[in-house]
Amino acid sequence: MGKLVVISGLPASGKSTLIRELKEKYGVISVPEHNEWVKGKFPKVPENIEEKIEKQRFFLNLDIARYNWAMEHLDKTDIIISDTDFTSPLAHNYAERWLLPDFNIYDWMVDEYIEQLKAKKLGLADYYIYLDVSFENRLKRREEDFQNSGRKRNDMFFTNPFPRDMREFHYIMINENSHRRCLPSTWYDNTKDIREAADDLWDIISKVKKDETPEETFNKFANSLQDTKNDKQR
Questions:
Q1: CA angle, 32 as apex, 73 and 188 as ends, to 5°?
Q2: What is the span of the domain harbouring residue 179?
Q3: pLDDT tens, 40-62?
Q4: Is residue 233 part of a domain?
Q5: CB–CB of 174/130 below 8 Å?
Q6: Considering its fold, how many domains does the chain have in total?
Q7: What is the pLDDT of residues 5-22, one digit of tens each?
Q8: What is the CATH number of the domain that holds 179?
Q9: Contact 37/62 with Cβ under 8 angstroms?
């Protein structure tokens, strides 16, 4: 059985570019990205709490489908890489509850996602890598991406406090200096060029060992996730 590795980070942190390099250089396979999965057909901007919950159910079901795709392919390869997973919408709503308090569904999300994990409809990856990138470098990558592909990115992801609070969620769960760290993970300062960074990540990924049972990781994650309900915006 292979290993599922998730690469997370804020928009324009280099996730997709690094995954393409890892695929080309080391032959790993990757889970289809969200946009590729639904061909750009995402729900409309919600106008009330009910629509916000329905929109989040859409992304939850999408992440369940992506996780099941990975599980179906793990016996065919040593490593599968995913460009984010369900922890990213959790990070998004962790931050958004302070930005848009009238649309706060974060507590509901925490409870719902934990239930899906308990029911084994959804699962945690074997390892997580967070790409930490400065605002200046993210802004530069956003401009380069727009010039090369015409892809636009929401300014919300580049205007504090929103990206700062999204990063804080990942810091809690992943960073080795966090007392609430609960996931097998590496916090990677992504300052190198693409080839060097891909080599670094491959060195990390190829050495990943499953030291905990899925139940142990789930229990630690569920406890830390429940704790985030009580966090105050810093």
A1: 95
A2: 3-228
A3: 788 899 999 999 999 999 999 99
A4: no
A5: yes
A6: 1
A7: 999 999 999 999 999 999
A8: 3.40.50.300
A9: yes
